[in-house]
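CHAIN AND CONFORMATION:

***
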Amino acid sequence: MARVVLVGLPGAGKSTLARALAERLGCGVLDTDEVLAGRVGTPAAAYLREVGEGRFRAAELEALDEALEADAVVATGAGVVTRAEARERLRRERAVWLDAPDATLLERVGGGDRPLLGARPAEALADLRRERRPLYEAVSRAVVDTSGSLEDALARLLEAVS
């Protein structure tokens, strides 16, 4: 199996669909947030708050590099595309942009620990979409709508990577 890398905004389903896709394909799965947490000894969101976005993105790039050594499905952090070095690596991969309407994303992240969404998550998410859309487009070979059921989203993802 060739590696598949999932990118997208918070709530797009990267972690959930990475596990489901890996199970369907019979391969491993890695989540760069989990790789990062293992390296720094604290959850990714807490580390972001602790060290700031600059240092966090540097650590996230190291986690991406580690994850890209495996022949697996890789779920990335939503902001990994903000670093040029990460985009360069992702362009060489079979990267798929997972996306859904903002209302769906907000429903999914409600109550989660998402430091970059802050006190005004709808406005913050709209800003992230505006900033990151061209970055996701630049690294992805396909876009998959993840709204609806997990089974429907997985079917669309399987079609995109086959």
